[in-house]
Amino acid sequence: MAAPSLILILPFVLLLGAMALAPVLAPQWWLRQYPKVALGLGAITAGAYLFVLRDPVSLGHTGHEYLSFIALVGSLYVIAGGIRIEMSAAATPRTNVIFLLAGALAANVLGTTGAAMLLIRPWIQMNRGRIGAYHIVFFIFLVANVGGCLTPIGDPPLFLGFLQGIPFWWVAQKCWPMWAVSTGLLLAIFYALDRRAFSRPGRSPLKPGAKTWSVGGLPNLFFLALVLGALFIARPLFLRELVMLGAAAGSYFTTRKSIHAANEFNFHPVIEVAVLFAGIFVTMVPALAWLDHGAARLLGPDPGPAVFFWGTGGLSAVLDNAPTFLGFLNALFGVAGSREILPLLDQRTAQVLAICVGAVFFGAATYIGNGPNFMVKAIAAEHGVPMPSFLEFVWKYSLPFLLPVLITNWLLFFRG
After folding, report:
1. How far lies 332's CA from each of 37, 69, 296, in Å?
2. Closest to 162 (Cα-Cα) out of 386, 367, 356, 381
3. Rounded to an integer, what distance in angstroms lies between the CA atom of residue 74 and that of residue 89?
4. Model's pTM, two decimal places?
């Protein structure tokens, strides 16, 4: 099929622009109107494909990918909401580093959304009395983004890659050096900041002997195992998604109400993600098709990994990183002249890695780069943490602390 008209890409551009600007410029309006905006623009694209292009197959394929995506994200969110971790002692900088490292590892099992929702409240509790914006920002960097780079469960872009045919363990085998370098650098920077803040008068931890932590809702680990096992189900169609949703339902109805209440659990965040991504998945169909047809002309005959690292990353920082990942993966398909994923992984390993790492790591650069970022910010604000504005987040934290880590990755892994 020929490349779609650029006019059909307009709903996709409008939706991503609204997601980027409306929460900053008109937050109350966006909170009320985002379902109408996302679903309305999606309906325009769906109508064009059904009644003008007569191409229901493309919509059906995208619909299956959306169902798989939202089943994973939603089930992990619900199961994480049934596990309660309580901290009753303040933490030293060393304890904080260990906690962030554990959170980065957990993101690969619970997903960045699940890990962030599970751990943000204990993180605030254990640093109460001395918590600053940098605690939340580095939590966003490590737990809500960079940490989830080792499995397709970890971050939505990687799961979309898994749905495209990237083998499950390929991510861990190829991405671990970038994960180790970036996680290590960010933890070292955080330790230096936290150590300096901790050494100020009145910043000492609670007295020794206090109970430090407790965990409730451990039966939910069984439902988590069901979700992880379901990832490897390929046939029959939709069985994987049914197992995930069944595990989420089992978790929700068997978890004690007191745990949900203590976690302030509700479905609003996952409903917002479901609605927004419904619009994104539909409106991006013509954009991905256009990239597939025009990538060679747009990027050149043989673009290096740096093009994909900075291209995917730059857009992931200001848009959502999941559709950006798909866009550049389709661009690479177009450059290669084939949609066969396994030959692509063998012949253009560095480019695929650059797309994966760029999407995941740059998602931490702004509040809108990845879904959990805004959720973490909102919870921190509810607990009285003075959070930076959108622009302050970028120039006070992303540019001085995250950007050097990204440049290091470029120099070590993607410059050639």
Report:
1. 30, 22, 8
2. 356
3. 31
4. 0.82
The structure tokens listed for 161 are 């890659």
- For residues 114 and 77, the answer to whether their CB atoms sit within 8 Å is yes
108 or 384: whose pLDDT is higher? 108
| Whole-number Å distance between alpha carbons of 356 and 300 | 20
Strand, coil or helix: what is 261?
helix
CB 376 within 8 A of CB 116: yes
In a 13 Å sphere around the CA of 7, the CA atoms on its Cβ side amount to 5
In angstroms, the CA 45 to CA 12 distance is 9
What does the pLDDT read at residue 208? 43
Closest CA to 105 of 180, 162, 181: 180
Q: Hey, how many other C-beta atoms are within 10 angstroms of the C-beta on 260?
A: 17
CB of 328 closer than 8 Å to CB of 312: yes
Rg of the Cα atoms in the chain: 21
Q: Residue 324, CB half-sphere, CA atoms under 13 Å: how many?
A: 29
**Tell me: the pLDDT tens digits for 187-232?**
999 999 999 988 876 555 444 444 567 889 999 999 988 998 898 8
Encoded tokens for 102? 């554990």
Express each pLDDT in 353-375 by its tens digit.
Answer: 999 999 999 999 998 788 789 88
* pLDDT for res 231: 82
Give the Cα separation of 171 and 158 in Å (integer): 8
Closest CA to 370 of 142, 35, 145: 145
Name the DSSP letter for residue 147. Answer: G
CA distances from 372 to 17, 107, 154, 363, 412 (A): 19, 11, 12, 10, 28
Give dist(CA 113, CA 92) in Å, integer: 26
Helix (H, G, I), strand (E, B) or coil at 2: coil
